[in-house]
Design goal:
The protein is an alpha+beta fold. The chain contains ten helices and 20 strands.
């Protein structure tokens, strides 16, 4: 049977585009498909107050730079950071991470999603990948060696591997009958861009409140992207109140750590839940990014896990490209990335448990202090968080 493509990637966001770029050495015929009207348009980044941002950590940045797909971060929409400072509301115990303890110049960078996707798409333009601005309405398996997709215009395409990078509510995952496990946190995250009176000092700040954490991610010119996790009723109030009221409440929430909050963009909110597919593959199907897993934004790991999925799958395919959809390869991918994601979930649970210890504030503070002073656990937690240790794709590793 003659196939149209070797690999079709559904979803041209950060994760799907990383996979398309990382597969360039394979020489395989690739199609990158996305239904969004502006999915492949190159345009100037939106105004600062309309952007969504992601914290991308050191190992993932290493890989994107090696793929010539990392954008410059010297304008208002990007900022490297060297430190993380985490504390809680009921005592002074804190955890501080610094890149210099690992001999690194940065822990990561906060970048506009539009900016990163645009850089990836510009890099993909130099490869053989075909961009198709359509949705996928149906999939089928016409033969043991192929999977077929029907586009929303009725066109049919066949491939040896279909990769679902189409988000949390993945159409491909659902049509492949892959079940999920989901835990609802009964909370929302409120996001905005703010300008504190004090400079963030290239530090990512996060405070644990009784209702959930509030994080300040550093941007250029002293701006910060904030993510405030709280109960749904409070989140609704934060989104609807005036800028002045919000700035005052936000400043109070972190006890003036960054001074008065001088300005804020419009706020947006989204529900918080943890979700993971029970398997990351099916017959000639692979799941990456949010199609495979979605986690709490506590450590800003969502985009990083998706990038690592893409790099891992690309590494396996580039090494065994005779049939990118064969079951052994996909089983290896499933084991590799499920183990990696579960490790991150365990590290996230370790950190969050220090701040919700039911025995009370004193013991909670002791747990945080012990973790902060640990010469073994703390550096390893940091290395794992920023993608410098573990079973990593080669492109992420230090050289």
């Amino acid at each position: 049977m003659s196939l149209d493509y070797d690999i079709i990637i559904a979803g041209a966001g950060i994760t799907g585009s990383t996979l398309a770029r990382a597969l360039a050495p394979s020489g395989l015929r690739l199609a990158l498909i996305d239904p969004a009207p502006d999915a492949f348009k190159t345009a100037p980044a939106s105004a600062l107050n309309r952007q969504r941002f992601s914290a991308i950590y050191g190992g993932q940045i290493n890989a994107l730079q090696r793929l010539d797909s990392w954008p410059e971060t010297d304008d208002r929409s990007g900022q490297e950071f060297q430190r993380m400072h985490i504390w809680e509301s009921q005592n002074r115990a804190a955890i501080a991470f610094d890149s210099t303890t690992l001999g690194q110049t940065r822990l990561g960078a906060v970048i506009g999603n539009e900016q990163l996707v645009s850089a990836l798409h510009s890099s993909i333009d130099s490869t053989r990948a075909t961009k198709i601005n359509r949705g996928i309405s149906a999939i089928s398996w016409p033969s043991p060696g192929a999977v077929s997709v029907v586009l929303d215009n009725g066109e049919q395409l066949s491939t040896r591997l279909l990769v679902a990078a189409d988000g949390t509510n993945s159409n491909i995952r659902q049509q492949s009958r892959i079940d999920i496990d989901r835990r609802d946190y009964h909370q929302h995250a409120v996001v905005a861009t703010v300008k504190p009176a004090r400079h963030h000092n290239q530090t990512a700040w996060q405070k644990f409140l009784p209702s959930g954490p509030v994080a300040f991610l550093p941007l250029a010119d002293g701006y910060c992207s904030i993510v405030w996790s709280t109960d749904s009723e409070h989140a609704t109030a934060l989104v609807s109140q005036s800028d002045e009221q919000f700035c005052e409440q936000l400043g109070d929430a972190i006890n003036g750590q960054l001074g008065v909050i001088k300005e804020s963009s419009m706020r947006f909110k989204f529900p918080l839940f943890r979700q993971q597919a029970r398997r990351y593959c099916a017959d000639r199907i692979a799941l990456i990014g949010d199609a495979a897993h979605r986690i709490h934004p506590l450590a800003g790991m969502g985009a990083n896990l998706g990038i690592t999925d893409a790099l891992a799958l690309a590494e396996l395919i580039n090494s065994h490209s005779s049939d990118p959809g064969n079951s052994a390869l996909l089983a290896n991918y499933d084991r590799w990335r499920r183990s990696g994601v579960n490790s991150y979930l365990a590290a996230q649970e370790l950190l969050s448990s220090c701040y919700r210890w039911s025995a009370g504030s004193a013991l909670r503070g002791l747990g945080v202090s012990l973790l902060n002073r640990s010469v073994l656990v703390k550096p390893e937690l940091l290395r794992q968080t920023i993608g410098l240790t573990g079973n990593l794709p080669q492109l992420m590793k230090l050289r």
